[in-house]
Amino acid sequence: MLSRSTLRIATASLASLTPALAYAHVGVGETSGFAHGFSHPISGLDHVLAMVLVGIFAFQLGGRALWLVPAAFVGMMAIGGALGVAGVGVPFVELGIAVSVIVLGAAVAFEIKASVAIAVTLVGLFAVFHGHAHGAEMPESAGGLAYAGGFMIATALLHVAGIAIGFAIGKISQRVGPSVVRVIGGLVALAGVGILTGAL
Predict the structure, then answer these.
(1) For helices 4-16 and 144-172, angle between their N-to-C axes, nearest 10 degrees
(2) Does pTM top 0.70 for this prediction?
(3) 3-state DSSP: the chain helix, strand, coil percent, rounded to 5?
């Protein structure tokens, strides 16, 4: 479980990045570098859903998975991003992103108790697809390191949001909370099907 101090740190981190988030959305100034990288993960429904689900999935697993699963995602996403920037092709990127939403939604909906090794491998695989999409879409005018830093921080914050959602719902009611989280997972898995089929 997350302590109150951990939640306060997460909240403070989100608040400190609010100006960057606003800058990324209104398009004021040069949309390159950090701001452009930060805005990329939060500009697509598929990315947002998958990354928040990684946090919820990590919360459900608990223990070491609480930090290892999100860390694995961010690390492998950086590798995928480097491949995208370098122009190295990764097959089925869009399919992989859509499937990640479906699989992670189902894992949360059915409260799959995977081992840490399996969970890390699963999210790591999906992270390569997400990272490749971010890297391949980096504008030529953007600084690579600043851009990468932006999308990695935005991703980490979405993971923290997922963990916080799981924690908050669990606190509402120990009896009803887990069911609410599973329903959310199911709805997101259905949204993933909509993304895959082009309905969303």
Answers:
(1) 140
(2) yes
(3) 80, 0, 20
